[in-house]
Amino acid sequence: MASDCEPALNQAESRNPTLERYLGALREAKNDSEQFAALLLVTKAVKAGDIDAKTRRRIFDAVGFTFPNRLLTTKEAPDGCPDHVLRALGVALLACFCSDPELAAHPQVLNKIPILTTFLTARGDPDDAARRSMVDDTYQCLTAVAGTPRGPRHLIAGGTVSALCQAYLGHGYGFDQALALLVGLLAAAETQCWKEAEPDLLAVLRGLSEDFQKAEDASKFELCQLLPLFLPPTTVPSECLRDLQAGLARILGSKLSSWQRNPALKLAARLAHACGSDWIPAGSSGSKFLALLVNLACVEVRLALEETGTEVKEDVVTACYALMELGIQECTRCEQSLLKEPQKVQLVSIMKEAIGAVIHYLQQVGPEKQKEPFVFASVRILGAWLAEETSSLRKEVCQLLPFLVRYAKTLYEEAEEANDLSQQVATLAISPTTPGPTWPGDALRLLLPGWCHLTVEDGPREILIKEGAPSLLCKYFLQQWELTSPGHDTSVLPDSVEIGLQTCCHIFLNLVVTAPGLIKRDACFTSLMNTLMASLPSLVQQQGRLLLAANVATLGLLMARLLSTSPALQGTPASRGFFAAAILFLSQSHVARATPGSDQAVLALSPDYEGVWADLQELWFLGMQAFTGCVPLLPWLAPAALRSRWPQELLQLLGSVSPNSVKPEMVAAYQGVLVELARANRLCREAMRLQAGEETASHYRMAALEQCLAEP
């Protein structure tokens, strides 16, 4: 065995005989003084030339951790020896060891992190060569640790982030290395970094932003690449936003090459994604800057996607998508928009051309590319456009609809991959870290608003039905509904889940009105109806979910008219529970409210309905109309309504308020329900008469109700 080692040993000695001589002296040292002298010689030899991994391991075997540990922690140096020389020697040895990834992850190295970080901000002569060497070695150790699988976590826990921030802000020797290591840690563990050192990181952001705003040389383009990493997951300080916007305005307002412009567009996209338009100042300068951003983004998208045979810079184009989305939001904002009407008209025209290029690109996407992040990003921006505008590019959109349905179905069936794609898009578009709010994790949710508009139109609706979109939407709704069912913590659900459910309801409402035959013949709608019936009773009892309850109740009532012959609606417990909950939703919208100085109360919205009535009232009126239509189709419904006392309480409410306070459309809605209940059931008529129904009908000029109650 010794013979096997001799060639390697002889080879090492021939490469660096001086080092071998010093290692021999180190092994034969009899006391601390001799060991210290030998270590100095070993360190000198190591720095004088490159060594391979085997030699580095032999040094470690000869030295170990014990003596370097003592050097790093000793407080008493030999006479005539500055105390930092011992520490510098200890750090130099650790730096040598850390060149070996296995040793860099060793507990004896990891537990030195708190000590090493103190060297980054230690005061001393900046021209002292030994101190400079110690700083370099410290950064070498920390960088090596950061390169190990669990290294970033240990560095963050050891206070490294704050120390690096202070070292950078102090602009002492090695501050550029501090910034480079900070960038690496933020890229690896952004959330943990901000959790541990938010004040220090914000201080660095302020410094970088100020430098960016003042920079007149090429450094401003380098800062464009760094700054996205230093934007916090929470609120960005206003002074930083001002500096960043001013710096970007100067860059993008100049004639630039692509390598100069692209980092600026990506920084602007990161700000848009994190802050919306809040970072752009109001007034003429802000509107011109926003128009410039969107214009540049659209030009970049067209150049990239319209020219065939050119390589698409996907990260840049995806960043441009984020800027286009900001443009869409501002062009559709009615109040406090940064843009004036002429600017909006111009930008919509420019964005239309860019969206045309996106559609052209998606038409070329084959099955093998459907799981690529850039395709997901392209579908996202198209979905944002269709949510607001479906009249333009109608022919192109219709041609693309089959692809969009297949694409959404593919990702729906592989939901985990869809979530991963969403994260990859965020990475592709902005930075190596998660930007701002989480992007929706599935393609279908991106397309729902646009499909809601398209299902109103005959041509697009027929294509969606032919491609199986209704069945896919039913499955998607049922899957998403499971997330809100008992047993799931709805408090942690993103708002996008509930918004998605509401939008699905709107699409189904469109189909109920425009394609009733589809509702009757497609089995998926029977499953949907069963879910609506089972869910509404608990939903109407939940605080803060009134708008979703309104969608579910109204959709269920409209579908019940079409599916009235279904066994599930023939007075089953589920159907009775659903209609009882629907009556609760419809009956609790208005109350009698006393007015000062008047003997009569007025009809007013109940407190729970006031805040959402603007979004709710159309659904409420549609629900009243749908309930009215269900009464003659379901013989058991009128007696059930009578048992709930809704007709009696409705007449009592109308009798207690001034008729002048009840709007004509409310009178019509109430009369519709009361008339159908009275016609359907003799006991209902008798109960209404006992509640002064004829007198109330006369006061409100409800001729149909008055006539119905006059009958036996």
UniProtKB/TrEMBL annotation:
It comes from the Eukaryota. Pfam families: Neurochondrin. SUPFAM superfamilies: ARM repeat. Signal peptide: none annotated. Belongs to the neurochondrin family. PANTHER family: NEUROCHONDRIN. This is Neurochondrin. It comes from Odocoileus virginianus.
